[in-house]
Design brief:
The chain has three domains: about 10-115, OB fold (Dihydrolipoamide Acetyltransferase, E2P) (Beta Barrel), CATH 2.40.50; about 120-165; about 175-370, 2-Layer Sandwich (D-amino Acid Aminotransferase, Chain A, domain 1). The chain contains nine helices and 22 strands. It has helices spanning about 120-135, 135-140, 145-155, 175-180, 235-240, 245-250, 290-300, 325-335, 365-370, and strands at about 10-20, 30-35, 35-40, 50-55, 60, 75, 80, 85, 90, 115, 160, 160-165, 190-195, 200-210, 210-220, 255-260, 275-285, 285-290, 305, 310-315, 350-355, 360-365. β14 (about 200-210) and β15 form a beta hairpin. The radius of gyration is 22 Å and the shape is globular.
Length: about 375
C-alpha cells in the first residue's frame, strides 16, 4: 500500500465473492473479485466461492487460444462498459493453467500465463536505455565482465538502473488494498488528483565513492536513472524550472517526484501549450513529507503541486463502512469528477495518511479510463 516497488500480480488465483445479475442482460452477469467488478458470461457457469484466474486491467495477454477474443484489442485487458456495467479485469477458469497442483488463493500466475504489463512509458524508457548503450561501445564491452558491473553498480548507486535510496512511484490500486484503508478509517488522510503525465523524479544526493563525498543531481523516469542529458522532456523540465540550481541552493538531501505534462506527453489530454511539472511527493533528508511540508517546500522551490482535493479527509464521512465492496464503491464514486487542469474527467485520486505519507493508494476514475481507452 505504499509506492515501494513490488512485483504486481497481473494474473492471480482469486475467489469470486459474489455474483449479481445485470438489469436487462440475459447472457452476462457481474462478479465481485477482491474489490473489482468484472462482467462474466452466464454460460461459463461461475458461482460465488469458485476459484478462478483473475487478470487485472493494464495487462497484455499472451497470444494463446484462450485469449484469441482479445486480438482486436491487441490482447490488452482494459476497462470496458457492457449494459451500463463497468468491467475491470478478466475472469478465466482454472483450466487455462497447465497445472493446478498446489495452487492456492492469491498465487501469482503472471509468468505461467505469459502476462505482461501494458506500460507505454516503459517502452519509451527501453528506447532511451538502448540509445544510451549504443552510443558507448567501450562501455558495452566492459559491462560484459561481472567485476566491472559490480563496481559500476556499487559506486554509481544504481540497481537495475534505479537509485537504491529512492522509492518508486507506482501506487497500489484501492481494489487490492482496501482492507488497509478499512483498518485506518480512524485516521485522517489527504487526497490529491492523480494526473496523467510522465512520471519524473529529480534528486540531489550526497554520494560516497572511494571514501570521498560528492553531491550529485540526478533525473529518473519511472523506472530508470537517466545518466546522460537528452533533448527529452525530463531534462527540458529540469532546465525550464531550474530544478538543479534550486536543489543545490537548498543544500539538503532532496527528492522531488511528480508528473511532466504537456505537448507530446500521454496525448496531452489537458491541452497544455507548454511543458509543465507538478509535484506529488517530496522526500527531504530521507523522510517523506506530509502535505503541509510538501506544499511549503514547493513554495520555497518555486514548483507546483498536483491539485490538492482535500487536506484532511475523514473516512468516517463515508459512514460506517466495513466491507471491501462498500469501500471500493464509495471511493470510486468519490474519484468521479472533473479534473482541475482541464474540462475532462480526472484520472483519479491518490490517498495518503497524514501521519504516515508512506501509506498510500490510488483510485482510478472509470470514466477517465473509458473516455481515453485506458
Amino acid at each position: 500500500m505504499s509506492d515501494e516497488t513490488t512485483k504486481r500480480k497481473l494474473a492471480s488465483i482469486q475467489k469470486i465473492s459474489e455474483i449479481r445479475d445485470i438489469p436487462d442482460a440475459d447472457k452476462i452477469q457481474v462478479a465481485q473479485i477482491l474489490g473489482w467488478e468484472c462482467v462474466i458470461s452466464k454460460k461459463d457457469n461461475f458461482k460465488a466461492g469458485d476459484f478462478v484466474v483473475y487478470i487485472e486491467i493494464d495487462s497484455i495477454c499472451s497470444e494463446r487460444n484462450e485469449f484469441e477474443f482479445l486480438r482486436e484489442r491487441k490482447f490488452r485487458v482494459r476497462t470496458i462498459k457492457l449494459r451500463k456495467q463497468v468491467s475491470q479485469g478478466l475472469v478465466m477458469p482454472l483450466s487455462i493453467l497447465p497445472n493446478t497442483t498446489g495452487i492456492v488463493e492469491g498465487a501469482d500466475v503472471t509468468d505461467i500465463l505469459g502476462i505482461k504489463k501494458y506500460d507505454p512509458q516503459l517502452v519509451e524508457e527501453q528506447k532511451i536505455a538502448e540509445d544510451a548503450k549504443s552510443k558507448s561501445e567501450v562501455f558495452k564491452f566492459f559491462m560484459g565482465f561481472a567485476i566491472f558491473r559490480w563496481i559500476y553498480f556499487k559506486f554509481n548507486h544504481v540497481e537495475k538502473g534505479w537509485p537504491q535510496w529512492i522509492s518508486h512511484t507506482d501506487e497500489e490500486r484501492l481494489q487490492t488494498c482496501a482492507k488497509i484503508f478499512i483498518n485506518n478509517m480512524d485516521k485522517i488522510w489527504y487526497v490529491t488528483e492523480k494526473v496523467d503525465g510522465q512520471s519524473a523524479t529529480y534528486f540531489y544526493h550526497k554520494s560516497k565513492c572511494w571514501g570521498f563525498a560528492k553531491w550529485i543531481f540526478g533525473i529518473c523516469s519511472r523506472n530508470i536513472w537517466l545518466k546522460k542529458p537528452t533533448n527529452g522532456s525530463y531534462w527540458q523540465a529540469a532546465e525550464k524550472f531550474d530544478i538543479k540550481n534550486k536543489f543545490v541552493k537548498f543544500n539538503k538531501e532532496l527528492v522531488s517526484q511528480g508528473e511532466n505534462l504537456g505537448p507530446g506527453i500521454q496525448g496531452n489530454k489537458y491541452g497544455l501549450k507548454e511543458l509543465d511539472f507538478m509535484v506529488f511527493n517530496i522526500v527531504k533528508d530521507g523522510e517523506r513529507c506530509e502535505i503541509a511540508q510538501m506544499e511549503h517546500l514547493c513554495k520555497i522551490l518555486g514548483l507546483k503541486t498536483v491539485p490538492v482535493i482535500n487536506r484532511a479527509f475523514d473516512p468516517k464521512s463515508l459512514g460506517n463502512l466495513t466491507e471491501v465492496k462498500d469501500v471500493v464503491q464509495a471511493l470510486v464514486k468519490m474519484s468521479n469528477g472533473k479534473s482541475q487542469l482541464a474540462d475532462i474527467p480526472r484520472e483519479g485520486l491518490v490517498f495518503r495518511l497524514n501521519t504516515n505519507p508512506n501509506v498510500s493508494f490510488k483510485v482510478i476514475n472509470p470514466e477517465f479510463s473509458l473516455k481515453f481507452n485506458e
